[in-house]
């Protein structure tokens, strides 16, 4: 911490923090009142300040712990934990509070014999994939893009295109957690098991995940297979196929809105598993982006895109490695306009009830006037590990990407649509995902997450002074 940095913070409370930061070399670099936002770009949040973690989890814990004690005694505001801030409802920030930016804590240590990687929670998949790739390994479960931090991925309990796997918590051997009391605990299914189940999928409310031991999977060349079908047949056709990775796409073309589907499956080529393969980037990102963005606000653009996806993609697709498939930045398709954002929703529905939910969603979205840009379907298996599980049986996850203008009216319209979609998925026995906009009512949240009240009671027992808080807790935890 430099003297200039300390002065920039400028208040008695902050100077105290600065002293600890100096001892432990955590630079607290942003001024009080710094304005942060998340991937939604509609959540400007004025925070007390940002602390940056140290590359070493031990040093991070040593220097953050005194601040946690000051928070507990009411001498400092509470703390939110942040990775890359790709959540969209303030889950990684707290108005007026401290934010711990974990990204510098990015050490990676691969145990090839055990096929387990120990990784600092601030590391991103973008940093981890090349290290695994060089050893013939690949992440076992991650999102469909590589931008996210490991801590953020574990705290939402992410999932992706991996077929036949529960969410990422199923791949975690152990985590090290900095608790509200400033202790560092090892948590696993057999050690501090309650905290393990709460912290994975716990949105930073039970402590700071410092590092994690994750199981890894052999990299391999994957052969792609494409099939088009009516959405009504997707669940049956999917169940009859095997694959290591797979995703579905539903049409957003107005001529076949949500009624047609494409299933893309990847199967490993014999003899390639565990070999060291070149890590390449996705093909023609500019072209992919142009086709995608030209479909925004345009029925014709959506018809063209769907025709290309259905007819041309199977001919253009070539075998590629599992790591190459996963090594894709979200920015390829992202909205860069200052006036609008791409806003994600995700709904989880029991596999047999997919078409029931999609039909209901079609009847809600089509007349809503909200621009649905994309829907992908994921295979997510039952999660028996986390307290706040969203996949309590084998489900399909439907990721919906909408364009939303940065106006209060557009947000109101999105809130109404979100609530209607949550009711529809609940009627089909399903749930919804929590990293996105916090539009659900409290009753909808409790219906989708029956363990919510027990999880909040555990929060108050384990963190009685509410040291860790964020936008999700402010919305539903009180
Ligand atoms: C374009 C896009 C695509 C996405 N695709 C997928 C997908 O395919 N599958 C999927 O499952 N999700 C997906 N998501 C959601 C994404 O997985 C989550 O938003 C995830 O949290 C992002 O990681 P992050 O590092 O940005 O976390 P942040 O947004 O920074 O944090 C998310 C939550 O984790 C907590 N947290 C972060 N780090 C720690 C830590 N070290 N210790 C304790 N708590 C911590 C925060 O407090 C917060 O509550 C997508 C999001 C976007 C924007």
What does this protein structure show overall?
This protein is an alpha+beta fold and 478 residues long. The chain has a domain at 221-442: 2-Layer Sandwich (Alpha-Beta Plaits), CATH 3.30.70. It has 15 helices and 19 strands. It has helices at 3-9, 12-24, 57-72, 125-134, 150-156, 193-199, 234-239, 285-293, 299-316, 322-326, 354-365, 408-427, 442-448, 452-462, 471-476, and strands at residues 35-36, 45-46, 49-52, 79-82, 98-101, 108-111, 116-120, 137-139, 172-178, 184-187, 208-218, 221-230, 245-250, 260-268, 320-321, 340-350, 371-380, 395-405, 431-432. Strands 15-12-14-13-17-18-16-19 form an eight-stranded antiparallel sheet, sandwiched between helices. Strands 6, 7, 8, 9, 10 and 11 form a six-stranded antiparallel sheet that branches. A three-stranded parallel sheet has the order 3-5-4, with no helix packed on it. A hairpin with a 4-residue loop joins strand 6 (108-111) and strand 7 (116-120). The chain is globular and about 60 Å long. Bound molecules: flavin-adenine dinucleotide (FAD). Flavin-adenine dinucleotide binds next to strand 4, helix 5 and strand 11.
Q: What key attributes describe this structure?
A:
flavoprotein, alpha+beta, binds flavin-adenine dinucleotide, Alpha-Beta Plaits, 15 helices, eight-stranded antiparallel sheet, six-stranded antiparallel sheet
Largest sheet: 8 strands, antiparallel
Structural class: alpha+beta
> Largest sheet, order of strands side by side?
15-12-14-13-17-18-16-19
CATH topology of the domain at 221-442: Alpha-Beta Plaits
User: Termini, distance in Å?
Assistant: 36 Å
Question: Runs with pLDDT <50, length 5+?
Answer: 1-28
Secondary structure: number of strands: 19
Mean pLDDT: 93
In CATH, what is the class of the domain at 221-442? Alpha Beta
Radius of gyration: 22 Å
CATH architectural type of the domain at 221-442: 2-Layer Sandwich
Q: Tell the overall outline.
A: globular
Beta-strand portion reads: 15-25%
